[in-house]
TrEMBL record:
<dbReference type="InterPro" id="IPR050883">
    <property type="entry name" value="PNGase"/>
</dbReference>
<protein>
    <submittedName>
        <fullName>Alpha-1,2-mannosidase</fullName>
    </submittedName>
</protein>
<dbReference type="InterPro" id="IPR005887">
    <property type="entry name" value="GH92_a_mannosidase_put"/>
</dbReference>
<dbReference type="Pfam" id="PF17678">
    <property type="entry name" value="Glyco_hydro_92N"/>
</dbReference>
<dbReference type="Pfam" id="PF07971">
    <property type="entry name" value="Glyco_hydro_92"/>
</dbReference>
<feature type="domain" description="Glycosyl hydrolase family 92 N-terminal">
    <location>
        <begin position="31"/>
        <end position="292"/>
    </location>
</feature>
<dbReference type="InterPro" id="IPR008928">
    <property type="entry name" value="6-hairpin_glycosidase_sf"/>
</dbReference>
<dbReference type="InterPro" id="IPR041371">
    <property type="entry name" value="GH92_N"/>
</dbReference>
<dbReference type="InterPro" id="IPR014718">
    <property type="entry name" value="GH-type_carb-bd"/>
</dbReference>
<dbReference type="InterPro" id="IPR012939">
    <property type="entry name" value="Glyco_hydro_92"/>
</dbReference>
<feature type="domain" description="Glycosyl hydrolase family 92">
    <location>
        <begin position="298"/>
        <end position="779"/>
    </location>
</feature>
Length: 795
């Protein structure tokens, strides 16, 4: 009964697919390693979470500073000391600390005789562990601490069950660090109910990217409250609370936040509570816990709805494992080595961790206007955590391909937020907060992509009208410099000047960088134009389509003595000088050399501006290779490809449009085999809410999104002999066959689509939307004739 109750909300219709091969992966979940990306800057977390889940129960590590952590999102494989197991996390965000990490719960062996908040260097109330005693699986995490305590955690979507064990005959305490979110907190509250064996409370927090020096102080603010309710299977032997440095044994309530600063400005502030247990006869404690962003009653209802009263950690873990297996089976690969399968399915696992549920089981969720709302008619759930600047390039396409119903709910969620936010679509939404992080208008690109790929379960007309208004009607925030450069409040900053000059002026744009803003808005406008065309809105399509070409106004053909580059301009039309292709002046987290390639919507136009396709391809060669001809694809050189950040991650596929697709094939394969891998350092950089993982999934399949707002896909050599893409709830499948796929056969010799010869290096969007068969003949050497006809190049 327990397992049935857990599985009921997660059942979905099967998808039709071709008959499986003998070497097809039966249970993808067996090949997932949540520790991939947990070192080397990947900023993933290994704890227990479900696909798109609200709860993500994972360790918070410490290097000796209670106001900081060892990695942006709470866990670093290289740091084996923890101060608690927190209830919420965000996958791969780059700001340090990242976001969430709410309510760390710590099993402590010993007497609580001082305030844990006064332990500012985490010397007493933290514990070390070894990886030999750690096990991370999808939906399940357990670890044994050197103190003798252990934590065994499993979750449903909004709740979890934990077994905490302690040494026999030793003081056993469980600390609730209610105020100690990764970024701090405005306030926190805890209540301990000895009679009912319960601990409840909340934390009032937010402040994503609030410590970043480039405008982050504007984000040192509160925008959500997380409630929790924890019940235990046994009585408490002792209780107590603390506020700042004051310990109150026997007390059952406490309040107090930490603020949003760091180091000495925050150390020693905060509140929490503890409960103790008698370990003479029983050294194991079971805790059942629910969370909610709406209310305490919502947290308790979520727990009742999702986890049966007597469900064990093993029961919940089994249900969670099954839920992950169903989602991951949206792509079934055959063949390939175990490291290849592990890298692939872990990337898919990371890509499907977000967006995240923020609505309760009853449909209520916290609005961006600070009040509770209920999901719209036809909407299944409200989702959040939108790292738009990152995700619109790969992750949202994968979401639309594999989970179209979730994609539609997510689109509706973003529209709901915009309506609650005065019509403003924020580019980086965390829970119910508009954080303004990064640049551009990624919501436009995202929803246009969803619609192009066939997602329809959202108010498309209402969303388009709202996004069109944001792109055409100046908003007062667009003239504000608050939060600039990294968190500028204007979502179309300096729009009146942009529309007049047809570029974002570096000296008047109220943005991170004028050149970057122009490129981002050009991509967004081109995507909106294509969406308008599908909606039959010809006037808007023509207007926005022209604006999709505004990138030309920041391309200086004489930027250097030898080559043209994207370059920032002032309002009077002059170029911002001095100019250096390695500089990020006018750009956001990237150099001019990288951003010059960020015109995915008009590669032919970019090639023409560079002097033709051959010259553009030769320049692209220099972007991926050092002067001596050796590869340069690991990052660290501002003049060359950087796999760790988003502005240039589409660049390997540009060769397809330049008539040299074999170079896409060898470049993508070089990156896949040298930059990505298994183990904690298996990601090149921040996963950015699944973006880098989605890049890998597409690369392994031999497909990549051509441009935002489109369903067409660019082709390269697949990694696996076969893959069946069977979207959730859809009776269609796309089968990709590449019998000769191997490390020695990256090159495409021929392609067939639905059995017919296919002579272009791109795939029509109808195949992506409707399914079919795609067959590759692969070779061990380049075929310089396939897909090179100028008339058939991607446009």
């Amino acid at each position: 009964m327990a397992v049935g109750a857990l599985l009921a909300p997660l059942v979905e219709a099967p998808a039709a697919s071709a008959a499986p091969r003998a070497d097809e992966v039966r249970h993808p979940v067996d090949h997932v390693d949540p520790l991939i990306g947990s070192a080397g800057g990947g900023n993933t977390y290994p704890g227990a979470t479900l696909p798109f889940g609200m709860i993500a129960w994972s360790p918070t590590s410490t290097t000796g500073d209670q106001t900081n952590t060892a990695a942006a999102n709470g866990y670093s494989y290289d740091t084996t000391r923890v101060r608690g197991f927190s209830l919420t996390h965000v996958n791969g965000a780059g700001c340090h600390p990242g976001a969430a990490g709410d309510v760390p719960i710590m099993p402590f062996v010993g007497e609580v005789d001082s305030s844990p908040t006064a332990d500012t260097k985490d010397q007493k109330y933290a514990a070390t562990f070894s990886h030999e005693k750690e096990k991370a699986e999808p939906g399940h995490y357990r670890v044994g601490l050197d103190s003798g305590a252990a934590a065994d955690l499993a979750v449903s979507e909004r709740a979890g069950v934990a077994d905490f064990s302690f040494p026999r005959n030793a003081p056993a305490r469980l600390l609730f660090r209610t105020s100690n979110s990764l970024n701090g907190s405005e306030n926190a509250h805890i209540e301990i109910d000895r009679r009912r064996h319960k601990v409840t409370g909340w934390v009032l927090t937010g402040a994503f990217c609030g410590r970043r020096a480039n405008g982050g102080e504007n984000n040192r603010k509160t925008y959500y409250r997380l409630y929790f309710s924890a019940s235990f299977d046994r009585a408490f032997s002792t209780v107590g609370t603390w506020e700042n440095d004051r310990l109150s044994p026997g007390a059952t309530t406490a309040d107090g936040g930490e603020g949003y600063l760091t180091g000495a400005d925050r150390a020693g502030r905060g509140s929490g509570g503890y409960v103790g247990f008698d370990t003479v006869r029983d050294n194991d404690v079971r805790m059942r816990l629910g969370i909610s962003y709406v209310s305490l009653a919502g947290a308790e209802a979520n727990l009742r709805t999702e986890i049966a009263p007597r469900a064990s950690v093993a029961d919940v873990a089994a249900a969670g494992r099954a839920a992950w297996d169903r989602r991951l089976r949206a792509i079934r690969v055959s063949g390939g080595s175990e490291p290849r399968r592990a890298a692939f399915y872990t990337a898919l696992y990371h890509a499907l961790q977000q967006p995240n549920l923020i609505s309760d089981a009853d449909g209520r969720y916290p609005g961006m206007d600070g009040t509770p709302h209920r999901i719209e008619r036809g909407q299944t759930a409200q989702y959040s955590n939108f790292s738009g600047w990152d995700q619109y390039r790969a992750q949202v396409q994968l979401l639309a391909l594999l989970q179209p119903e979730v994609a539609g709910d997510f689109a509706q969620s973003l529209l709901n937020f915009a309506r609650q936010n005065g019509g403003v679509w924020d580019r980086w939404v965390h829970i119910s907060g508009a954080t303004h992080v990064m640049t551009g208008d990624p919501s436009a690109a995202t929803l246009a992509t969803f619609y192009a790929m066939g997602v329809r379960n959202f108010d498309a007309k209402g969303a388009f009208d709202s996004l069109y208004r944001q792109a055409t009607v100046p908003h007062p925030d667009g003239l504000s410099d608050k939060g600039c450069p990294g968190q500028c409040e204007g979502q179309r900053p300096g729009l009146a000047q942009y529309l007049e000059s047809r570029y974002a002026a570096q000296d008047a744009c109220h943005c991170w960088g004028g050149a970057a803003e122009t490129l981002e808005d050009s991509v967004a406008d081109d995507a909106l134009a294509r969406w308008a065309r599908l909606l039959g809105r010809t006037k808007e399509a023509d207007e926005l389509g022209a604006r999709g070409g505004y990138w030309r106004n920041v391309f200086n053909p004489r930027a250097t003595g030898t080559a043209g580059y994207i370059q920032a301009r002032n309002r009077d039309g002059s170029w911002v000088t001095p100019f250096d292709p390695a500089s990020d002046r006018g750009f956001a987290q990237g150099s001019a050399a990288t951003y010059t390639w960020m015109v995915p919507q008009d590669v032919q136009g970019l090639a023409d501006a560079m002097g033709g396709r051959d010259k553009a391809a030769a320049r692209l060669d220099g972007f991926f290779h050092k002067p001596d001809g050796s590869w340069s694809v690991r990052g660290g050189d501002p003049l060359r490809y950087d796999p760790t950040n988003e502005p240039g991650i589409h660049a390997p596929w540009l060769y397809n449009a330049l008539g040299q697709p074999w170079k896409t094939q060898e470049t993508v394969r070089q990156i896949v085999t040298t930059v990505y891998g298994t183990g904690p350092k298996g990601l090149p950089g921040n996963d950015d809410l699944g973006t880098m993982s989605a890049w890998y999934v597409f690369a392994a399949l031999g497909l990549y999104p051509q441009a935002p707002g489109r369903a067409e896909a660019l082709l390269t050599g697949p990694l696996f002999p076969r893959a069946v893409i069977a979207p959730a709830g859809q009776r269609r499948a796309l089968t990709i066959d590449a019998p000769d796929a191997s490390d020695t056969h990256p090159y495409v010799h021929a392609v067939r689509v639905n059995g017919r010869p296919h002579d272009t290096s791109w795939l029509d969007g109808s195949v992506v939307r409707r399914g079919g068969s795609l067959s590759f003949d692969l070779a061990d050497r380049p075929d310089t004739s396939w897909a090179t006809d100028p008339g058939g190049l991607p446009r």
